[in-house]
Amino acid sequence: MKLVADLLGSPAILVGLVACLGLIVQRKRPGDVLVGTIKTVTGVLILFAGAGAIVGALLYLTPMVQQAFGVEGLVPNNEAFVALAMAKAGGLVAWVMLGGFVVNLILARVTPWKFVFLSGHHILYVSVLLVLFMDAANLSTWTIIVIGSLVSGFLYVLLPALTKGQMSEVTNGQPIAMGHFGASGYFLAGLMGKWFGDKRTSTEDMNVPDSWQFLKETVALTSVVVTILFVILALLVGPQYIVETLNVEQHWVVFAIMQGLWFGAGLAVVITGVRMMLAEIVPAFHGIAARIVPGALPALDCPVVFPFAPNAVLLGFVCSTLAGIATTVIMKWAGGILVVPPMIQHFFMGGTAAVFGNATGGRRGAIIGACLNGVLFTVLPVLLWPFTKVVLAEPITYGDPDFCWTGMAVGAVLRWLNLIP
Amino acid sequence: MRILVVCGLGLGSSHITAITVEKALKKLGIKGATVELSDLASARSSPCDLWVASTEFAHQLRREMPESSHCRVIGIKSAIDVDEVASAIRKAIDAIDTQT
User: Fold this and answer.
1) What is the pLDDT of residues A298-322, one digit of tens each?
2) Chain B CB contacts of A303 below 8 Å
3) pTM as predicted
4) Would you state the pLDDT for residue A401?
5) Helical H runs in chain B?
6) How far away is chain B from the Cα of A276, in angstroms, using its nearest Cα?
7) Which residues of B touch A (CB under 8 A)?
8) pLDDT category, B100, cuts 50, 70, 90?
9) In chain A, what residues touch B16 (CB-CB under 8 Å)?
10) Counting C-beta atoms within 10 Å of the first and last residue's C-beta, which end of chain A has fewer, N or C?
């Protein structure tokens, strides 16, 4: 029995089983089924390996921020959170991913919300979030699977439905929907554009210099930001603190730079792991959905809108980042929490928000929409943190608005029921 | 033939684009091609015959590659439009053939 329990409790094995099932349903050859399954399991293990590198860097972040500013430091990063949390959440994550997909298909068949959510990484992230909270509340295995599947499956059609009207404006009526847990932010950006913008001045009439293109390298930029933060912290706390209290043997400047780079490296490893683990599952979900709900719109990851307004993406990234950093500074002054700017969110989601804002309100819509989102990426993680503290010791939480809303809602309900502290 | 599908992180849109590329290859009658996924940062260090990315990221990829390989970077506007991807792959293969 322990053998079976341990096997089914291992996320690597269970996610591998889901992939294996998907490959068999697609009638792949036995060799491809074997290799695909192993690659998926390897992806999960790579994810765990990357988590180690991220924790290594964060180990020093908390005491240094505390020493330098007298406040807590928080890193909003979905990938880091999932990498650390997945081992705790166990095999249930795979069941909730599968169950949520089934609920999505049923809802797409019977309700007017005909969407199939195909952003595999977000299916993973929300499943981890839901399982983790309910596991901390000591709910039974079946309760977790059923509630987790219902909540996630409902979100998979709700989020694309929210942005449906604006998406057709963005894409000129292409048959795609937005399958992303930043949807509420994009929706607000679209509204801002409509209310305060001016459609005639499109971002796409602007001339963006080629030298800005490096801004698309988000993982490298994350390393840069965390490195700069560590260097500032090191300067503030002084070499003596680093040598004596943190017991670091390296020269303190080298130490600060390496911590930032290690964080970026860990993130790169984790992302590779997530990619490998989803490479077989997403095509399987896509194939099955096409058979069961043939008319449904595929709800896809946010960069699918980038080609419709590439200038807006870069403008949005810059605006979102500036607004986010300004919010960080204000919150720190107010004696709150120091939020490490989430560069992945600022680029991908700040960019998408600007594409929405531009579609409804031109240049001004893009700027206002992206700035608003930048504030959300900084404030919402702080509001979610009191809940994730219950389940994860490290100062990491989700960055995307709709993960934050979902986490806060589920956490608040569980707290109200006295199931979590 | 090895085709690398690239998006910003290699997490979301590349997975969908890869499905479209598979369908496009079938339509073109190209057999024995492998389709793999990558992120922008590691794409340039992964040797392959064709890189497929959305126009946004294709632009960035081309900037980093020697000019001789520019035709091998395919930029596409829609992640789900099989016809667009198929004709882009056709065009790229023809361009490579005339080059060699």
Assistant:
1) 999 998 999 899 899 999 999 999 9
2) 7-8, 12-13, 54, 56-57
3) 0.91
4) 97
5) 13-28, 40-43, 55-64, 82-99
6) 9
7) 7-16, 18-19, 22, 37, 39-42, 54-57, 59-60, 63, 76-80
8) low
9) 118, 282, 286, 298, 300-301, 304
10) N
